[in-house]
Specification:
- By secondary structure, the protein is an alpha/beta fold.
- It folds into two domains: about 100 residues, 3-Layer(aba) Sandwich (Udp-n-acetylmuramoylalanyl-d-glutamate--2,6- Diaminopimelate Ligase, Chain: A, domain 1), CATH 3.40.1390; about 100 residues, 3-Layer(aba) Sandwich (Udp-n-acetylmuramoylalanyl-d-glutamate--2,6- Diaminopimelate Ligase, Chain: A, domain 1).
- The chain is built from nine helices and eleven strands.
- The strands form two sheets. The protein has a six-stranded mixed β-sheet, with helices on both faces. Strands 1-4-3-2-11 form a five-stranded mixed β-sheet, with helices on both faces.
- The protein is globular and about 50 Å long.
- The protein starts with a helix and ends in an 11-residue tail after the last strand.
C-alpha cells in the first residue's frame, strides 16, 4: 500500500473533521517516511520504547493516538531530538488519530462503552452516556489498572465515559442532563472535583484509551505495541 492510500483509509475510519480545533496540524501524517507501506505498528503513544520496537519490527508506519509533537517547534533538542532522530533515520511514517478517533464510530469512547456493556447510549460532545449494570469494582476490573472514586457511588445506574482527560465541568453538566449519576475519565484535578455535579471515577489515561488502539490494530492486521505506564498503588 502507498502512503496516500493509507491516509485515505484512515480518514475514512476517523474523519479529520471530527477532531477538536486544538488538534489542527497535530493529526494525520505528522512525520513522512517511505512511500510504500508493508508493515504497520500501532500504539497509544510514540514513546522512545514504542518507536524502537516499531523499528525492530521493520515497520513502515507507526499509528498512535497522541502526537509526540504537541507544541510548535523552533528547535530540536533533548528527548524530542532523540525520538525524532530514531523516527527519521529509520524512514518511519508516523500517523496520529486523536480526538477524531475519540469521536469516530468504533473509536475510543465507543470501545469503552462496549467494554463496560453500556446500553441505551447517547453521544455527548466528547464521550458517551449509557445505562450501566456494573458496580465500581466491576468497572475497575473491566478497564484494568487502578481506579479512584471521588464522592459516594457504588453502582451507577447511568454512567458517562470520556476517554483521556475528560473531567471538564461542561462535559459533566451535559452528562448529568442525560441522566448520568457518575462520570468516568482520567486525570481529575482537585479543584474540578470540588465543583463537579457528579461523583467521579478516575482511571488512568492509558487504561481508557489503549484498548481502542489495540482493537484497531487487531481489526486491521497490524502489530499492537503495549507500553503501559508503571504505576504503584501504596496504602
Amino acid at each position: 500500500m502507498d502512503v496516500i492510500s493509507f491516509i485515505v483509509e484512515m480518514e475514512r475510519v476517523a474523519p479529520p473533521e471530527l477532531a477538536e480545533d486544538f488538534d489542527a496540524g497535530r493529526i494525520g501524517l505528522i512525520v513522512e517516511g517511505r512511500r510504500t507501506i508493508k508493515t504497520i505498528c500501532c500504539a497509544l503513544d510514540a514513546t522512545p520504547a514504542v518507536v524502537k520496537k516499531a523499528i525492530a519490527a521493520h515497520a513502515d508506519m507507526l499509528v498512535v493516538h497522541h502526537t509526540p509533537l504537541w507544541t510548535p517547534l523552533t528547535s530540536l533538542t533533548g528527548a524530542t531530538s532523540s525520538l525524532m532522530r530514531d523516527v527519521l533515520s529509520s524512514n518511519l511514517n508516523l500517523y496520529v488519530m486523536h480526538t477524531n478517533f475519540d469521536r469516530a464510530s468504533c473509536g475510543v469512547n465507543d470501545c469503552l462503552s462496549e467494554i463496560l456493556s453500556l446500553t441505551n447510549t447517547e453521544p455527548m460532545t466528547l464521550g458517551v452516556t449509557g445505562d450501566c449494570a456494573l458496580s465500581v469494582e466491576e468497572i475497575a476490573h473491566r478497564i484494568g489498572g487502578p481506579v479512584r472514586v471521588w464522592g459516594k457511588i457504588r453502582k451507577p445506574r447511568r454512567l458517562a465515559v470520556v476517554g483521556g482527560s475528560g473531567f471538564d465541568l461542561s462535559f459533566m453538566a451535559e452528562a448529568k442532563s442525560l441522566g448520568a449519576d457518575a462520570f468516568l475519565s482520567a486525570e481529575l484535578k482537585h479543584s474540578v472535583f470540588r465543583s463537579a455535579p457528579l461523583p467521579c471515577i478516575e482511571a488512568t489515561h492509558y487504561a481508557l484509551e489503549a484498548p481502542a488502539m489495540e482493537r484497531l490494530a487487531k481489526n486491521s492486521g497490524w502489530k499492537f505495541i503495549a507500553d503501559p505506564p508503571v504505576i504503584s498503588v501504596l496504602p
